[in-house]
Amino acid sequence: MPRIALAQIDVTVGDIAGNADLCIAAIAAARAAGAELVLLPELAITGYPPEDLLAKDHFVEDARDALDRVAAASTGIRTMVGFVEREDDRLFNAAAVCEGGVVAQVYRKRRLPNYGVFDEERYFEPGEWHSMFDLGGLVAACTICEDIWVPNIAVDAAHEGADVVLNISASPFHAGKGLEREEMLRTRARDSGVWLAYCNLIGGQDELVFDGRSVLISPDGEIVARAKAFEPDLLVCDIPAQGDVAVMGRIEELLADEEEVYRALALGLRDYFAKNGFTDAVLGLSGGIDSALTAALAVDALGARHVHGVLLPSRYSSPGSVTDAEALAANLGIDCRSLPIEEPFAAVLQTLAPSFAGAVPDVTEETLQARVRGTLLMALSNKFGWIVLATGNKSELSVGYSTLYGDMVGGFAPIKDVAKTAVWDLARWRNRASEVIPASSIDKAPSAELRPDQRDVDSLPSYDVLDPILKAYVEDDLSRDAIVSMGFDAAVVDRVCRMVDAAEYKRRQGPLGIKITEKAFGKDRRMPVTNRYRG
Length: 535
Fold this sequence. Notes:
Nitrilase/N-carbamoyl-D-aminoacid amidohydrolase, 18 helices, 6-stranded mixed β-sheet, alpha/beta, elongated, Rossmann fold
């Protein structure tokens, strides 16, 4: 009965030596657990995705040297690990099978994803053959990530005699993908009649989050072992040979909808800071739901002593907004200060008064307030090395209901891909045990408070109408007519689509944010700024 270990580790793109150290530590832990094979994720040596680092010959050479270190550690155990293989001027996304201290064989990924966030055809050539080896009397076949998403490769491997299909992966998270991926893997196992061992990466890499949830699946499609979500883990399990019945392996519970999204956001934020050498975050606290959720995420990701809240009240800030922000800071236990913007705002208005003479006050004066706030937050960032967290949500960014160099200022945008309606859901989930985010912040009508009695619905459709239209237009790429046929008012749809198209230039200038939907702004959705198509 062969024992295998699935080692989902949190690597960093470009940290070749550190990634190799993580691999070697996982090999040692798997060996100590009695495993005869350990799987490590796709491109574990370089980190995923390495992008144009692959254009640097020395990067590929350094990674190959690190693979030799990992192979040297593979004594008394076999290791399957992802790396970049170079042959002449061609690169391959490959898996090395190491044993006896050397690389014994290499498998090259056959299906290269080239959609959404993936650009593998830009860098790699596809492989053309199976790689198989004996695993305690069973025949094991190697695959890498996308190979298992297409039906024929696992089936072909079974036809060639495989009893076990091994898959090392770097599969990015989006809400609901864990269940979708498991169902696909169960189908592959049933259709091919093999055991399927799947090892996924975990961790945050820029806007991507990898959720782990490595699994072992039986030939009848039963999940017999599942690793943790959003955490490094070593899942050790036995694969029964013919006549054996016992299977050793734990099955971690699946996460509920809001919990998996919240944990993805927290992991993405934590790793962005840790992997880029940052420790502290600063953000404006308005008393509203977006800044409240962002602050709670920051505390859960970084710790309360590393989060700094700033109240930036103006002449239009309601007393309730100030007290809600103060209550949030107290509940979270974070450093909090107040920097009223009335004096700098008035000074800017006075400076502009000669140029604005005779002009009617409008959105210009409103956005000046946001830009004053952004300037103060960036000053704190520059002085103390704190990273400003932008607090805008996907709904606002979609329609341009945001201010360049104002509320869009920042080094990272944790809820950039979270629709407004989902912000409320996540806030309520965060409050499930106790009220951390003040109920009034959740219940109040959304407002930017840039003019007297302002409400978001003065400028936008209500979010319960806006968000479904945005999902249809931005994420599902439906036409205007198709969205209207769903029952939405044609004039509202036209207006929303125009706003989305017109705001592309703003989104190009905004900070990175964590992807949690199937189509996020950025790598997922690449629209030209100069664009006259109105479909």
